[in-house]
């Protein structure tokens, strides 16, 4: 199984200097140079499950297209690219660029404080704009006598109407700036409040439950791939009577396994030539359909399925290692802060206490952590 360190290419927290020394003589990552490692840095934060790419220089068109295609977005105020969630493909892309994915230097609370500071600056600027607009209106209105109407037909009518319009526009701008200032004030408070909410024991407990559920699903997928791969390897085993498997028996076995194995691909005529009346369709179809229609042989079906399952197994192992990192990050924090005192503890009402129910450690049955898929195994009737 892939370890958490292998998931990120090298040991977590490794320095760029150590990586550069290890590159001498052997290439650990394709298309990685000293200049690339020097100007680009990739980090991962288990707190928010985000990948970040720091670039000291402007990315060229090809690199920028690959980053955008992988789902990264530009954060102009932070000066970095970020992805909303970790995936193996995005981690591989950053490893290809930087050689290693390090730990994020700033915590969730630190980033929230920096964000709140930016919002406070916006709030102060908008408040200053509101005061400036209000002072400009007061200066115009101060030159008009109290209760002085617009003298229609007088030579001052044009100037008076222009001043009235300027006063109205200035008051509208002042009110708008005050509203914007209050908006940024609430955003600054919300950034801190959101970061503190993420640190609550109840939130971490629910996060742990989701991580454990996702890990169990990835383990089931891995075991299913291993089970089906083992079945394909037994395709040519002797029958129950000990006689060698003939072509008809091998075909029946291959059809039975393919019926339980959901693998599909495109069968192009250039790679899988066939004559009429066999279908000439080149679109995507399942291995079972291709085998039943005479497009491929049982041996070709086994080759396709084992190749797909090898790729799926590697993918599942990457996700399992990632979930292990997420669990190892959140579980110690929950242990330090998760126990919440309850006045109902020891009484019959404690079981129904919502506060304790949300902060209780998620219960995971060890027997169901690495179980086989719930679907019945086809091994008992494949012969």
Secondary structure elements and their pairing?
Layout: H1 4-7, H2 16-23, H3 34-39, E1 40-45, E2 50-55, H4 61-69, E3 73-75, E4 80-83, H5 88-98, E5 101-103, H6 108-142, H7 157-198, H8 201-233, H9 247-260, E6 264-266, E7 284-286, H10 287-292, H11 298-337, H12 354-359
Parallel strand pairs: 1-5
Antiparallel strand pairs: 1-2, 2-4, 3-4, 6-7
Textual characterization of the structure:
The protein is an alpha+beta fold and 383 residues long. It has three domains: 4-105, no CATH class; 110-198; 211-340 and 349-380, no CATH class. It has helices spanning 4-7, 16-23, 34-39, 61-69, 88-98, 108-142, 157-198, 201-233, 247-260, 287-292, 298-337, 354-359; strands spanning 40-45, 50-55, 73-75, 80-83, 101-103, 264-266, 284-286. A five-stranded mixed beta sheet has the order 3-4-2-1-5. Strand 1 (40-45) and strand 2 (50-55) form a beta hairpin. Helix 6 packs antiparallel against helix 7 (157-198) and helix 8 runs antiparallel to helix 11. It is elongated and about 115 Å long.
């Amino acid at each position: 199984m892939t370890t958490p360190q292998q998931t990120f290419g090298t040991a977590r927290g490794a320095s760029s200097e150590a990586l550069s020394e290890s590159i001498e003589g052997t290439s650990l990552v394709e298309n990685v140079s000293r200049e690339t490692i020097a100007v680009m840095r990739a980090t991962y934060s288990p707190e928010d499950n985000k990948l970040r790419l720091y670039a000291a220089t402007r990315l060229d068109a090809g690199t920028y297209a690959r980053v955008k295609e992988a789902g990264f977005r530009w954060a102009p105020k932070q000066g970095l690219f970020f992805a909303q969630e970790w995936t193996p493909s995005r981690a591989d892309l950053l490893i290809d660029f930087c050689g290693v994915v390090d730990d994020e230097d700033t915590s969730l609370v630190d980033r929230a404080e920096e964000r709140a500071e930016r919002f406070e600056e916006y709030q102060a600027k908008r408040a200053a704009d509101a005061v400036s607009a209000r002072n400009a209106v007061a200066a115009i209105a101060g030159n008009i006598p109290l209760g002085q109407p617009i003298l229609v037909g007088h030579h001052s009518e044009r100037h008076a109407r222009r001043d009235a319009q300027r006063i109205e526009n200035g008051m509208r701008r002042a009110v708008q700036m005050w509203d914007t200032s209050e908006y940024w004030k609430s955003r600054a408070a919300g950034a801190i409040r959101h970061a503190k909410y993420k640190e609550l024991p109840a939130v971490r407990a629910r996060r742990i439950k989701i991580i454990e559920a996702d890990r169990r699903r990835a383990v089931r997928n891995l075991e299913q791939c291993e089970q089906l791969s083992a079945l394909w390897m037994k395709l040519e085993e002797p029958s129950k009577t000990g006689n060698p498997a003939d072509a008809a028996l091998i075909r029946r076995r291959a059809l039975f396994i393919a019926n339980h194995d959901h693998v599909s691909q495109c069968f192009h005529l250039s790679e899988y030539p066939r004559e009429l009346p066999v279908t000439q369709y080149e679109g995507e179809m399942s291995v079972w359909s291709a085998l039943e229609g005479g497009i491929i042989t049982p041996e070709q079906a086994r080759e396709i399925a084992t190749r797909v399952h090898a790729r799926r197994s590697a993918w599942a192992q990457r996700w399992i290692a990632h979930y292990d990192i997420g669990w190892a990050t959140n579980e110690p924090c929950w242990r330090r802060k998760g126990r919440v005192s309850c006045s109902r503890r020891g009484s019959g009402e404690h079981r129904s206490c919502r506060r304790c129910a949300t902060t209780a450690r998620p219960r995971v049955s060890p027997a169901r952590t690495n179980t086989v898929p719930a679907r019945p195994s086809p091994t008992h009737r494949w012969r």
